Amino acid sequence: MQGLMMDYPLTLRTVLDRANRLFPRRKLSTKIGASMHRYTYADFYDRVSKLANALARLGVQPGDRVATLAWNSYRHLELYFGIPCMGAVCHTLNLRLPPDQLIYIINHAEDKAICVDQSLLPLLEKISDHLKTVETIIVMADAPLQTTLTNAISYEELITGEQADFAWPELDERSAAAMCYTSGTTGNPKGVVYSHRSSYLHAVGACMTDSLGLSQNDIVMPVVPMFHVMAWGIPYAATFLGSEQVFPGPHLQPRDLADLIQNERVSLTAGVPTLWLGLFGLLEQERFDMSSLRVMIVGGSAAPRSMIENYQKKLGLRICHAWGMTETSPLGTVGNLKREVLEMPEDQQYAVRAKQGIPAPGIEVRAVDENGAEVAWDGKTMGELQVRGPWVASSYYNDPRSSASFVDGWFRTGDVVSFDEDGYMQIVDRTKDLVKSGGEWISTVELESVIMGHPGVLEAAVIAVPHAKWQERPLALVVARDKVAPPTKEAIYDHLAPHFAKWQLPDEILFVEAIPKTSVGKFDKKVVREQYKDYTLPE
Fold first, then answer.
1. Active-site positions?
2. What are 178-199's pLDDT values in tens digits?
3. Domain with CATH 3.30.300.30 in the chain
């Protein structure tokens, strides 16, 4: 017997329509230079409709890829909906990737058009001769175009004069809506294609109270870039609910973020730990009104426990740890505390908050050993994390590497984790970042977290370096908060000693000016390992 329910299509068009019908007067604000651009969801809907008409007039067909190369802004949000709701595919390009990878991604996706911010146009001008399928460059700027590209057109000129309604097609919910390419991988980036169905369900999942917990009453500021896993899906979820949204554009310095949170009364924001470490340094020195902020979602890499504690105890601000990947759209786990954990002593609660959380509703997880057997959830046994769910990729786009990453209906993440009895996940490391010392594993993530808990340390990265006797040993790179009076090596070793066995401690601590970062703000271990591949540890 089958259920007798409507076959209602789960598409982004319903997300767009809901915001326009129920929340037409809610504001969308973007920082542009020293001023703010503001309009409403009703204005947004009209411009999205004009955009769809303009793209159709350019010859964009269902299934065509239309790329974006842009900061977080109202125009980027228009592209998030105008492109997929007309049946094409919104392909976000990571503006921090090197030129050769951008060329590969654009050609591999076979992008038909690229929508680019005026400030980022030089990136395209440098590689335009290598782009095989791009027919049109749409420049998102108010000013007249200044470019050497002959196929460029102004975004505003393109949509001016178009009708503010569009004959939206009835789309198959399983048709492609958007695509992103992985970053920080070995070899060429891998393409992940999100469907309307997966994007819709991911938005629903993000809105749940025991997930990211967005509300129509929130003022949401995604600081995580819109080119990075669709800003963690937050713009879709916020639009679904009719939440007001604030976009920082390229203004991501601590003072910019503090001013926006204070002046726009932001209640929910999201970004990587390096951004919030910088913001904390400012808030320690200067007074800003952060009283509107109810939660800061942190993901992309592990947030040090010290950062979580400092924000809570010194500023009264709650950080919520989350984990995900491009392949998981990215919502995977969220660090909300169970009732049982809230009954624990404060120190134990912070230990749980420093973990990556429990699986979001809709996501299944497991950790497996080298033989493929699932490991116990005892908080100690480590295994490779595997996930599955309705917004998890089933394969990469046109890529033979899929067979190694997708096995028996599960996605192999490459993360090494443990789960405690309550289901809280602790990322131990990436498989390639673990230090194997004399047959024992040492977690670089755990070392980094504790080192960054030292009050004199701003950032720390730990890598494995070759060792004649032990195969590999850990080397720690440290950026001091005060470059004039940095902490001593002995002080850092003393800080580490209560938390680790002696054999787990780094063989050497080097003070550096900065640690290389990936295009999405994580420590770039590939670059660091290459820099120190010939480093000889002291005897």
1. 182, 327, 436, 441
2. 999 997 556 789 999 999 999 9
3. 432-531
